[in-house]
Write a structure and sequence with these properties.
The protein has about 450 residues and is mostly helical. It has helices at about 5-10, 15-20, 45-50, 50-65, 75-80, 90, 95-110, 120-145, 150-170, 175-195, 195-215, 225-250, 255-275, 285-310, 315-330, 340-355, 360-365, 370-375, 385-415, 430-440. Keywords: Membrane, Transmembrane, Transmembrane helix.
């Protein structure tokens, strides 16, 4: 081997590298502008000017890549933004560029673009239409309560409110609002047409349960305690409208059974929805599991204790409880209800506050039906008037929000504020609280958007 041999090998370009730079990743051999065009084509003269070895290599690689797929397949996001990845050789060869554009258009036709379901104007229009239907239903219920118009006005208003609430719940939870609202409208019309006590009572139970669940689902995360108060009031008001719709069906009920049925239906529906919103059981964690267990035990103990006192309590104990209730009603205008003040409102307050930081807050909010379900069925008790119901709910809100405030502060004391060993820990309790509020940035759709 002479010294000129390494120099000749170094000066000679490697065939694989030359082909990779000249031939694109995909070449259509049937295109007239391909490198290996036929002698009778339009580019025969240009092909003849190339060396025989280059033409032979180009034809061989064209046959090799004839059935290959293009390396750059544009995604719908890139296509929508105009940022497509094109091979360098495709820009140099017009035929390969046209073929890549055709492949891109074909793939774009197969893969649909990701467009939002509803624009801002669409959301505003649907919300306006929903509020209008809800207002018409409430006007009909008010006319029935004031004995204005025919007797069927109250039933029509109840059906309208039930349909509007079903639409809102289905749209909020990512369901089929058109199908479920149409089904609710048909069932409500059948109930009014048949006019049977069992059907009207069943419709009232379902309406109250839907109102209770919707009150919880329409809440949004709350970073600070004033926002917690706002979300709790919003849930109670939505459930309170549902009790007027349930009363519009004129059910024939046993008050205790009706309230238990509404609470059971609302709790089951809320847990099914929260299972999806809270990332299933694996999204609970230790603290979430502890919250669910403690909440379930408190709910069971509260209901069982009240039922045991009512059924098996001694006359002295029952009489003392009854005397206390009568005294509160005579002197205070109402009394806080245990299940609302001790479980429902604190759970809803703590859950909305936790949802701004962790997804497990949805599991805490599920126990918020402990306040919305009794509120949605409060007017079905003929012994309690509207004013007394409002006063009792107000007392329950005050007591429950105080308990919720304490629970939130205890939670922040253990998990919210930075630790003492943190070098970036703000100085002072107020600075630490502001830093914790600024870090609560967990995103969640707005009140008029779908959660799923």
């Amino acid at each position: 081997m002479t010294r000129a041999a390494p120099r000749r090998r170094a000066d000679t370009q490697r065939r694989g590298r030359r082909v990779a730079e000249r031939v694109p990743a995909y070449v259509d051999p049937s295109s007239p502008d391909a490198v290996g065009a036929t002698p009778g084509g339009a580019d025969a003269g240009r092909a003849a000017e190339q060396p025989a070895g280059d033409r032979r290599d180009a034809r061989r690689d064209a046959r090799r890549y004839a059935h290959a797929r293009p390396t750059s397949r544009p995604t719908p996001d890139r296509e929508a933004s105009g940022d497509e990845t094109v091979a360098p050789a495709a820009a140099a060869s017009p035929a390969s560029q046209e073929h890549c554009e055709a492949a891109a258009s074909a793939s774009a036709s197969v893969m649909p673009r990701r467009t939002p379901r509803m624009g801002r104007l669409g959301v505003v229009g649907f919300v306006t239409l929903w509020l209008t239907a809800l207002a018409l239903g409430l006007l009909a219920l008010a006319a029935s309560a004031l004995d204005v118009g025919p007797d069927a006005v109250g039933g029509i208003g109840a059906v309208i409110v039930s349909t509007a609430y079903t639409w809102a719940l289905a749209a909020r939870t990512g369901g089929r609002p058109v199908i479920f609202s149409a089904l609710t409208l048909a069932v409500g019309a059948a109930v009014l047409a048949l006019d049977q006590d069992e059907l009207r009572t069943g419709a009232a139970v379902l309406t109250a349960a839907v109102a209770a669940v919707l009150g919880v689902m329409l809440t949004v995360p709350a970073r600070r305690f004033p926002q917690v108060v706002r979300e709790t009031v919003v849930a109670v008001v939505i459930a309170g409208i549902g009790t007027f719709a349930a009363l519009g069906y004129r059910p024939v009920v046993d008050v205790a059974r009706f309230q238990y049925a509404v609470l059971a239906c609302a709790m089951v529906c809320a847990f099914f929805l929260v299972y999806r919103l809270g990332a299933g059981l694996h999204g609970l964690g230790r603290r979430g599991m502890l919250v669910v267990v403690v909440g379930g035990v408190m709910l069971a103990v509260t209901l069982l204790y009240a039922e045991l006192i009512r059924r098996y309590g001694t006359p002295g104990l029952v009489g003392s409880v009854h005397d206390g209730v009568v005294w509160c009603r005579d002197h205070l205008g109402g009394y806080p209800r245990p299940i609302e003040a001790l479980l429902g409102i604190p759970s809803l307050a703590w859950g909305t506050h936790m949802r701004a930081r962790r997804r497990q807050g949805w599991w805490v909010c599920a126990f918020g039906v402990g306040v919305t379900a009794p509120v949605a069925s409060t007017l079905l008790n003929a012994d309690i008037g509207i004013l007394e119901s409002l006063v009792s709910v107000g007392y329950s809100l005050v007591v429950g929000l105080v308990i919720g405030f304490v629970v939130i502060r205890v939670d922040l004391a253990f998990t919210g504020y930075p630790s003492r060993g943190d070098a970036h820990r703000p100085v002072g309790r107020r600075a630490a609280r502001e830093a914790e509020d600024a870090s609560a940035v967990r995103p969640e759709p707005g009140r008029a958007r779908a959660l799923l």
